Amino acid sequence: MRIAGSVALVTGAGRGLGRAFAHALLERGAKTVYAAARNPSAVTEPGVVPVRLDITDHGRIAEVAGECRDVSLLVNNAGVMEMSPLIGAATLDGARLEMETNYLGTLAMCRAFAPVLAANGGGAIVNMLSVVSWFTNPVNGSYSASKAAEWSMTNGVRIELARQGTLVVGVNAGFIDTEMAAELAGDAPKTSPADVARQVFDAVEAGQVEVLADGRTRRIKSLLPQDHEEIYPAVQAAWDANHP
Ligand SMILES: NC(=O)c1ccc[n+]([C@@H]2O[C@H](COP(=O)([O-])OP(=O)(O)OC[C@H]3O[C@@H](n4cnc5c(N)ncnc54)[C@H](OP(=O)(O)O)[C@@H]3O)[C@@H](O)[C@H]2O)c1
Description:
alpha/beta; 7-stranded parallel sheet; 8 helices; binds NADP nicotinamide-adenine-dinucleotide phosphate
């Protein structure tokens, strides 16, 4: 689909990658960019239309889908990462919040906007996944599980919406230079939010279903058939080194 002249809605658009998505959409000539955020006063990108939206509030999702009936490009960017291990976390609260947000919140957005996109000629959905959709980093194991669920969901939504002509793009990425990666990434290389946004909207315009945003993500995907030989030994070694 063409971005120029389109009407887009970006979740989590107040900061980080979401803000870069909104900026890039305007630069590419989108007619309207709804910048959805839990706190719309945090949306400072000039030219966008702020919309109040918490993607765990399913009633509000339905209202926004009713109000923004001209959307042809839905960018599901909002997400949380609680740095919560699977066994070591004191409670299930982090795991639950990540599933409610990253998996169920994104799925609820896809469900609410599917008829809107159909009415507007098909359009596209972008789901912001992660390299940890494909392997579990135990440091944030419950986030990895939520991103694996979101990846699985994205592939199913693509099949269900193919007949209405909706392109469904899954975006897998390693570290991106935002608040989310600040603590975890240390000195590891990070992709700039603007570069991720460029790759994503190039893919939308080219009709591609997947974006692998960096070399680490491309490498991890290529190693999946040998994950227990090529991926998990290093993950175990890093975990053991930090938990003597
Ligand atoms: N940074 C990375 O290294 C990295 C790598 C791969 C994938 N990702 C994914 O990229 C996406 C964007 O993350 P980021 O790096 O920009 O992280 P970030 O700086 O922490 O921003 C997260 C965004 O999600 C919003 N959000 C969280 N919960 C929400 C909810 N319930 N409803 C609506 N908005 C909500 C936040 O809004 P508030 O301002 O209200 O908190 C914020 O705008 C996420 O899906 C993340 O999982 C990030």
